[in-house]
Write a structure and sequence with these properties.
This protein is mainly α. 79% of the residues lie in helices and 0% in strands. The chain contains six helices and no strands. Helix 1 runs antiparallel to helix 4, helix 2 runs antiparallel to helix 3 and helix 3 packs antiparallel against helix 4. The longest helix is centred in the first third of the chain and has 32 residues. The radius of gyration is 16 Å and the shape is globular. The relative contact order is 0.17. The mean pLDDT is 88.
């Protein structure tokens, strides 16, 4: 899928990519080792996406939307719940009895979050922020995803300042761990 465009296009592309991974997981039989590989791939994409949103999208939501603080706080709460689920899932193999339960919970959490963003938050932001700002945010989100962590870190503060300070270092460590373990590589 093509990345680029404004922040809404960029994040919507991310949503479609994760949904595609979820569909692949659902198509495989329980216990299939490929389900764990795909779950790791989904986690990598979700964590990078979440960190970029926390750094750039939610501050814009606070700035541009009426009741932006409560909207951003709710989105951050959604992220926090999903991150805890991903952390629990990280320790499970595909044959672990908890894997399917946790994967099902993660899919529900993410699908509800995506629906809310795409039906409510994105249209509101598109109405209130100008095109140049949305384009600028899209570029910032793409840049942030390049250095963002790839593993869940539920104890990391989710403030934009903390993410900007901590995410690149955690991201580097995560990418080294992924390279050494082969995590996130399919085939």
């Amino acid at each position: 899928m093509g990345h680029g465009g404004d922040v809404i296009q960029e994040l919507t592309t991310d949503h479609r990519e994760v949904e595609e991974i979820f569909a692949q997981i659902e198509a495989l039989p329980p216990g299939d080792k490929r389900r764990k590989d795909l779950a790791d791939q989904a986690t990598i994409e979700l964590v990078r996406h979440s960190v970029a949103e926390e750094m750039h999208l939610y501050p814009a939501v606070r700035q541009y939307l009426q009741d932006g603080d409560s909207i951003a706080d709710k989105e951050l709460q959604d992220h926090s719940e999903a991150e805890r689920t991903m952390k629990d899932l990280e320790g499970c193999g595909a044959d672990d009895p908890r894997f399917d339960q946790l994967m099902g919970r993660l899919m529900r959490e993410i699908r509800e979050h995506v629906t809310d963003e795409e039906q409510n938050l994105f249209p509101q932001l598109q109405r209130t922020a100008d095109k140049e700002e949305l384009d600028r945010l899209g570029e910032k989100v793409r840049t942030a995803k390049k250095t963002a962590p790839t593993r869940p870190h539920p104890s990391t503060p989710d403030s934009p300042v903390a993410q900007k300070l901590l995410a690149p270092g955690a991201g580097m460590v995560d990418r080294i761990r992924d390279a050494l373990s082969g995590r996130g590589k399919t085939g």
